[in-house]
Amino acid sequence: MPKQRKKRKALWPRILLVIVLLLGIAGIGTFIYVRINLEAVGNGEEVISFEITEGETFDSVLTSLKEQHLIRSDSVAKLYARFTGMNQYYAGLFELNDGMSTIEILSYIGNQENAKQEEKRLTVPEGTWAKEVAASISSLYPSYSTDEILSLWNDSEYIQTLSKDYAFLDADALNNDNYKVKLEGYLFPETYFLANDADLDTITRTMLDQFNIFYEEHKSAFENSSYSVHELVTLASVVQFESGTKQDMPAIAGVFYNRLNQDMRLESSVTVCYALYDQFDDPQDCETQTDVDSPYNTYLNNGLPVGPILNPGGDALLAVLEPESSEYLFFAADIHGDGKVYYSKTYEEHQRICEELGLILN
């Protein structure tokens, strides 16, 4: 009698099960990968003006978004857009931030109402002089000369009109013929997008509006200070000019307050720069010509300069509103090295530091 063969279990069900499991794992992995790469890159603190030019391809747009750190993956974004149909976009300027997810960005650039068209971009860097801002505006709007713009910013009647709309502008304080530019200090540093046909009043008010945003956010600090808004803006302009980094600003502001409280002259060489205005070619002139006769020169005059010496940014303004407390009366920056700022309580110590750094000591 022949032996009965044992039945062998079929392998295909097991193979199919393994394949299904692998596909499931791969699918889950793919899902997680895609989801992660669709998330926002940052927390929304960085705002970027993203430009899409006429005729630019979708691939190019995604590549630019990736290069500007607005999306995590251009390939995942392309895949998502293909399957969802979110591959429509418009030419123009879009205000994006790193807190937007890829899906939100695709949706935003796919809405024509979000695209800013026919605008001029005016960038006012921190620490810019009013005459430099005027020159930039003139280059964007050739019909307005730099002198014409500065003339408007020195017009007492115009400033009187502005002061009715902006609480931080003191028309009486600004009505001083010693000023180089009466609106110096209030042209808030920022990048602005202006209409092609914008007039000078609109452009001016756009910058003042930005200053007003900062003013309203810190209104209680301005009101609680023993100094007027104009004096605070003036001091902030000196701090802005003297500081290499925003981290230095509160400490430098504290030094200047200490000197003011002890009736010491500020003796800031940057005020000499502004006093010289068009009369210097080398920054060293600010260190060597401290005898220039000017109400801006804090080597010859007590207290603050007569007015702001540039347009300070928010960090400098915040520094004078929230200065760092210390007993320092002097500071010196290593301008020949890494820019580090050294502080001292006595003139003797300050003198030694300046000698070690190879700095001119007035």
UniProtKB/TrEMBL annotation:
Location of site Important for catalytic activity?
242
The entry lists its GO molecular-function terms as: lytic endotransglycosylase activity
Pfam families registered for this protein in UniProt = YceG (PF02618)
Using the UniProt record, name the top-level EC class of this enzyme in a single word: lyase
**GO-annotated biological processes:** cell wall organization; peptidoglycan biosynthetic process
Question: What UniProt keywords are attached to this protein's entry?
Answer: Cell membrane, Cell wall biogenesis/degradation, Lyase, Membrane, Transmembrane, Transmembrane helix
**Transmembrane spans:** 12-34
Q: How is this protein positioned relative to the membrane?
A: Single-pass membrane protein
Reaction(s) catalysed (UniProt annotation)? a peptidoglycan chain = a peptidoglycan chain with N-acetyl-1,6-anhydromuramyl-[peptide] at the reducing end + a peptidoglycan chain with N-acetylglucosamine at the non-reducing end
Q: What is its EC number?
A: 4.2.2.29
Chief localisation class? membrane
Similarity comment: family membership: Belongs to the transglycosylase MltG family.
**What biological function has been recorded for the protein in this entry?**
Functions as a peptidoglycan terminase that cleaves nascent peptidoglycan strands endolytically to terminate their elongation.
Name the record gives this protein = Endolytic murein transglycosylase
Q: What is the species listed in this Swiss-Prot or TrEMBL entry?
A: Faecalicoccus pleomorphus
The record's gene field reads pabC
